[in-house]
Amino acid sequence: MIQKNQIVAENEQIIFTYDVKWRQSDTAWASRWDIYLNEGELVPAQVHWYSISNSIFVVLFLSLLVVSILIKNLKRDIAVYNGISVQDIETDDDEGDESGWKLIHADVFRPPSSMPMLYCVLVGSGIQLVVSIMAAILLAAVGFINPSRRGSMLNYLLSFYMFCGILAGYTSSRLYKSFRGRSWQLCTIATAILFPGTCFAIFLFFNTVLAFLRSSGSVPFLDIVIMAAMWCCVSIPLVFIGAYFGYKREPIEFPTVTSTIARAIPPPSTFFTNPKVAILLAGIIPFAVAYIELFFIMTSLWMDQYYYVFGFTLVVYLILLVTSSEITLLITYYQLVAENHRWWWMALMASGSVSLYIFGYSIVWFHKLDPSKLLFTYMLYFGYMFLLCFTIFITTGSVGSLATLAFTRMMFGSIKVD
User: Fold this and answer.
1) Which of 111, 187, 250, 405 is the most interior residue, by most CB within 10 Å?
2) pLDDT 10s digits, 328-340
């Protein structure tokens, strides 16, 4: 059969055709996605294992450092302070026994001097994120979430986040009650609105702009209404239910009595004992342990590449939380030794400072995208990266804050106070 060339002229009808050739494949239908889920030969598993191994070694070294510095010093200080005979204690240590963290026992559990309600709201919102992210990654790691279904990960994450609202209300309310707060209604409303409201406002702004630009990336209006209805009808009521049970419980018991007048804080003796410097340096090690896996996650988010190795993500997520908490414990201990009893906000910011390095890394990584010169491209990227880093800030910050609270209660509960 002789095929004639199609005439392309004005007002001429053009016929579009294509051919398909079917070939027999030995790959089973159930395993057709394996080449994408295993990321093929582009990202071998040895790279992830190398990252995990380095991170585990860092965590082990840091844990040994925490044990050797904190436990040894605490046992010595507690023994001397309680009047127990301790051998092999140097004269310098005996002379310095009347200074340090023991002298601030009447101020260490004093509520934050500035914005105690905001502190409780951030910690409660962080606990909600910690549990919801953990549940979503865990289900993805065991294969319960099907990666072939587009958007399934996000749907499960939103669902877990809404149902974990009861944890946010309980944590923030009980902590606020321990601070002797009076405006419990305002604290509960802020817990239910602050973080999800910030996320929804940023998302709604960018989605509106995308809709005006007729972009295919804009979310339909009906989906936005469904999200708003789930937030108002499910998440917010659960936060109030959790707050109700939190206020019904007794406040957190502190081992020492807080004095009426706050003790003066001496100026930092060295550069590294400055709280601002300590907060900035605290995020370096947690960022280092998550750096390699962060590269693959960023590539998946912004370069449309497959990322389904959620088992590695789960391990890195746990290592990030543990590392941030251990660094915060070290910093808090040395601040207490320097007689700085204002540790509440410092613990939150120190454990959450890893988000500053992640945002700085996103600025450097942005050049790999070969972005256009449109202003909205920069706004879209950095707006969502700011939202992601803010999420990481309150997630790691809440874990570090509660770990520090447990540590200080254990430390000051082990001494005799006249």
Assistant:
1) 187
2) 998 998 888 888 8
